[in-house]
């Protein structure tokens, strides 16, 4: 994945990051609910230069049947990167990384979805990464929540996600690809703002206990910003005039 210039200035003397943002400034985020007519629910997100499409299908019958659970519905998530989504063509076969991210996103969504209302069925979430630029798991999780809501699946809350991190010994919000490659830490966070519960927390890098607490706080505050945009996307489709 690397090949980046490790000597790149990640934070200049004015506290400005390599892409011109301030330390607590997220990238431009655009979320659209709906868009795929053959899916039960869908969403499209642009999160900086990440471009991601999500389709949700179900609740529907499970095949093979022995995979189903008589007590509850099951959630299945596939995170898939298009070969053209990254600079160096990605092999189309599922990679270890894609399998891990699929699992992480599934586990981050499960506390939000009322699967117990649909025993013996499955809800399938297909995530297509069209363009990647650091932070795809957070952007995908955010869009998947909107797509599940768009499908009318009962939910306790939506999961909003963004990464906090550390570059040049400074805690930052929303880690881009350069900062992920050359920075000191990357902490993706998924959070249910109404329930005040974290459903995803990973950490790549080293932080002091104080930095750790600050990253969680900065990340949770960032998730609240993302949450407003998720709600706006659904409002625009169901109650608004444009974008539906
Ligand atoms: O995307 P996310 O930050 O959730 O996951 P990551 O494994 O930390 O990957 C960081 C970034 O590396 C991705 O967003 C892509 O931009 C890039 N990447 C790549 O260039 N080639 C790959 N085969 C996988 C990831």
Q: How would you describe what is shown here?
A:
- This protein is of the alpha+beta class.
- It has a single domain (29-239), classed as Ribosomal Protein S5, domain 2 (2-Layer Sandwich), CATH 3.30.230.70.
- It is built from 4 helices and 10 strands; from the N terminus they run E-E-E-E-H-E-H-E-E-H-E-E-E-H.
- The chain has helices at 96-109, 136-150, 177-182, 209-238, and strands at residues 29-33, 41-47, 50-61, 74-81, 121-131, 160-167, 170-173, 185-192, 197-201, 204-205.
- The strands form 2 sheets. A 5-stranded mixed beta sheet has the order 1-2-3-5-4. Strands 6, 7, 8, 9 and 10 form a 5-stranded antiparallel beta sheet that branches.
- The radius of gyration is 18 Å and the shape is globular.
- The N and C termini lie far apart (37 Å).
- The model has no long low-confidence stretch (mean pLDDT 95).
- The site of cytidine-5'-diphosphate (CDP) has 13 residues, from helix 2 and helix 3.
Name a few traits of the molecule.
single chain, 244 residues, alpha+beta, Ribosomal Protein S5, domain 2, 5-stranded mixed β-sheet, 5-stranded antiparallel β-sheet, 10 strands, binds cytidine-5'-diphosphate
Topology, element by element:
Elements: E1 29-33, E2 41-47, E3 50-61, E4 74-81, H1 96-109, E5 121-131, H2 136-150, E6 160-167, E7 170-173, H3 177-182, E8 185-192, E9 197-201, E10 204-205, H4 209-238
Parallel strand pairs: 4-5
Antiparallel strand pairs: 1-2, 2-3, 3-5, 6-7, 6-8, 8-9, 8-10
The structure holds cytidine-5'-diphosphate.
């Amino acid at each position: 994945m690397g090949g980046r210039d490790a000597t790149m200035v990640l934070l200049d003397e004015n506290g400005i990051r390599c892409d011109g943002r301030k330390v607590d400034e997220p990238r431009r985020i655009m979320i659209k609910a709906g868009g795929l007519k053959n899916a039960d629910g869908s969403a499209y997100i642009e999160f900086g230069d990440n471009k991601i499409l999500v389709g949700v299908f179900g609740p529907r019958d499970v095949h093979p049947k022995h995979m189903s659970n008589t007590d509850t519905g099951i959630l299945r998530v596939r995170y898939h990167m298009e070969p053209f989504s990254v600079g160096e063509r990605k092999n189309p076969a599922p990679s270890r990384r894609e399998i891990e991210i699929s699992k992480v996103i599934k586990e981050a969504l499960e506390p939000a979805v009322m699967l117990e209302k649909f025993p013996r069925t499955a809800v399938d979430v297909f995530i297509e990464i069209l363009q990647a630029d650091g932070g795809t798991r957070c952007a995908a999780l955010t869009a998947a929540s909107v797509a599940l809501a768009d499908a009318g699946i009962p939910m306790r809350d939506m999961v909003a996600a963004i990464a906090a991190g550390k570059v040049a010994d400074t805690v930052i919000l929303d880690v881009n690809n350069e900062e992920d490659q050359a920075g000191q830490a990357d902490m993706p966070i998924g959070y249910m703002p109404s329930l005040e519960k974290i459903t995803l927390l990973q950490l790549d890098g080293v932080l002091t206990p104080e930095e750790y607490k600050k990253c969680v706080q900065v990340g949770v505050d960032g998730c609240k910003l993302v949450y407003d945009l998720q709600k706006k996307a659904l409002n625009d489709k169901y109650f608004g005039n444009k974008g539906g």
